[in-house]
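Supplementary Note 3. Input sequence used for the single-chain structure prediction.
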Amino acid sequence: MGGFAGLVLGYVSRNLIPWLMHTGWDGGEMPIGFDWRVFGFTSAATLITGIVFGVAPAWRSTRADINTALKEGARTSTRRRKAWSGKAIVGFQVGLSTLLVVSAIFFLRTLFNLNSVDPGFRTQNLLLVDVTPPRTQPLLSQSSALHSRVRDAFASVPGVQEVTYVNHPLGAPSYWKSQFLVEGTQRDPASDLRKTGNAGEQAMVSYVGPRFFSTMSIPILAGRGFTAEDTEGSIPVSVVNQALVRKFFPNTNPIGKRFRRGLNDKKTRWIEIVGICADTRYSDMRQPTPPVHFDFDRQSAAPGGMIYIISSAVQPAILVPSLRRALQEIDPDLPLNHIRTQQQQIDASMQQELMFASLTSGFGLLALALACVGIYGIMAYTVSQRTNEIGIRLAFGAARRQIRAMVLREAGWLATAGVVVGLAVTIILMRLVQSMLYGVKPSDPISLAASALFSIGNGADRWLDTCGSRLESRTNGSVATRLALK
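The predicted structure, written as discrete structure tokens, is reproduced below.
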């Protein structure tokens, strides 16, 4: 029955991991169908496990001498019969549940710490949509003019406050790099190639549209942002972040300095730095802010597709149809894809942490429940084997609470031993996945102490043990006394 229930649960939850990894807007669904081979293998493994672990007790019971067992039971009424094999299995269950509970706490704290990171830009009331002209469209060669028209069309939709666009949205798990050569510096590309594997120093680059910094609430700390005077025919300009200034212009004011996206290539235009913006997270919430320069789309050979950032308090479900109509008025073949909010974009970069936190929490609670059942079963068996001893203790005036304390003390030692072993194994194994943690160390005392207290003193474990011992004391007390006096 247990194996059948597990198969049913596995069939129902077979799409759990794809669901945890699904972003909801990219359309990359991964449905997992039913596989009879997996079903057959699991069924066979369940049956073989039940048979193997049931053969030894059955074989032992057939070889027992009934008369000898009865005489032995009468003579050894005070001997404690310890099922060491059963207790070892229960201890292993407690240790495994401790491992999973501690792992769940570590990943939950990692997820909490990542959600607590300040990205440095606005995340609320921002809608992101992708607009990519088909490659067969002649508009692709005029992408800058096209995106200006699309931006104006979106800005005219009722409820829209601000509109801008960027080739790489902040918080997306990808990045754009370019070589970065400051004017007036001399660098040997071959030397850089040997050191870094790339010909020259590199920096992240984002091609942005008008009002990008105001829409994203990224402050300009020095200089200026992009204005209407920055046109295709004017001097190319760029806004850099603080991390780039620290790397390429230490102790120097970079305003007015020029750089190239490339090495000593005379065909590449010099770009003038006109502003410094505050640091923001770039591709995820884990990594520190990299050097980034934001170049104006009108003056750059940016790719055809752009991600539009729309500031609006209107719900996306209400706003999107109006955006589609505005886009189709420009060109019916222009698609509006990958609709999500800025917060959803950030959450997508933490899918791995969410998956591990969810799975370890679920498996940890399941293992903890199995450990509680195991402790109850082994202690109930131990108490039943010690009926004569309990009767003698009661006959000599032992109180029922003392009997319960004796049983609970043994169960407590069993649980404590399992937890200690589980914590030791956890500390060792968590070092292997330390790179997946954020803001917490494998030896974090708070997480370890919390999981230990939860595993040892959880209410279900205590409730089962207390109820089991109380039931044995109430129902077997008089019987045990009579047996002990025979």
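The first helix runs from residue 2 to 12. The chain is about 50% helix and 15% strand.
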